[in-house]
Amino acid sequence: MDLVTFYILAAITVLASIGVVSSRNPMHSVMLLIVSFGALAGLYVLLDAPFTAVTQIIVYAGAIMVLFLFVVMLLNQHKEDDPEAMPASLVRINSRGFVLLSVLLAVELAVALSRIGITTFTTDAGAVASISSVARIGTALFTTHAFAFEVTSVLILVSMVGAVVIARREH
Amino acid sequence: MPTLNHFLILSGVLFSIGTAGVFLRRNLITILLSIEIMLNAVNITFVSVGRYQGTVDGQIITFFVMTVAAAEAAVGLALVIALFRHRETLSPDAFTSLKW
């Protein structure tokens, strides 16, 4: 049952991601990426990580994708530049080479990762409960990883100021 | 039950799709979206290995990756807007002033 759910969600994720990469319209790309993130959130639930699943929906699909949508609509550039502008032979060779390279990367990663042997997850109820507990995550975040958490706030401040400075129109 | 291998292979496939997008596309916004796919592929590796080891560390690293992704998207999109103002195009081939 779980395996069937996994395959359905994985298929949605992979197909939506392929759609993101192959779509000519940035608007469609953003929408398909939201679909992909929704399926990924389902996979996180399957991995007993409900906190990560909810964060995925709220932060990724909610905040980051809205930012992307804003920019896509702001720039109003709904078509990719004409590939005719480049020499046709160059385009074809580049595309073929990079598709081949990516397929090879996927095969290599898959082979390498499947060589670690069959590794099943623990089904012990106590262990599963401790992983999926939001209280445990919060405790670890504010004790063991407190420094990294505080540095994150500085990072966000810097990126916020940076974004304003970079996008500001010179007067 | 899906095993760790299932999730790792899915992650590898997603990462390759993201890589293909970065190399193949001629649109700065789609390139940024492909980078998001790659970040999510890494996230799923972190969470599944954390699940395998029985610790919450994988989910915490994922939390930090999401924060960095948000910061990266904000700065990246600001750069895209600034570049678009200069050249009126989103093609990365138009921005070659620093090419030797």
Molecular structure report:
The complex is a heterodimer of chains A (171) and B (100). With 171 residues, chain A is mainly α. Chain A has helices at residues 2-22, 26-46, 50-75, 88-114, 125-132, 134-142, 146-167. Chain A has 2 domains: 2-79 and 92-132, Four Helix Bundle (Hemerythrin (Met), subunit A), CATH 1.20.120.1200; 133-171. In chain A, α2 (26-46) packs antiparallel against α3. Chain B has helices spanning 4-24, 28-53, 57-87. The model of chain B has no long low-confidence stretch (mean pLDDT 89). Chains A and B meet through α1, α2, α3, α4 and α5 of A and α1, α2 and α3 of B.
Q: Total number of β-strand segments of chain A? A: 0
Low-confidence stretches of chain A: none
Oligomer class: heterodimer
Helical residue percent band of chain B: over 70%
Class from secondary-structure proportions of chain B:
mainly alpha
Cα distance, first to last residue of chain B? 54 Å
Structural class of chain A: mainly alpha
Q: What is the total domain count of chain A?
A: 2
Tell me the strand percentage band of chain B: under 5%
Give the H and E element order of chain B. Answer: HHH
User: Percent of residues of chain A in beta strands?
Assistant: under 5%
Number of domains of chain B: 1
Any idea of the CATH class of the largest domain in chain A? Mainly Alpha
User: C-alpha Rg of chain A, in Å?
Assistant: 21 Å
How much helical structure, as a percent, in the residues of chain A? over 70%
Offer a concise description of the structure.
The complex is a heterodimer of chains A (171) and B (100). Chain A has helices at 2-22, 26-46, 50-75, 88-114, 125-132, 134-142, 146-167.
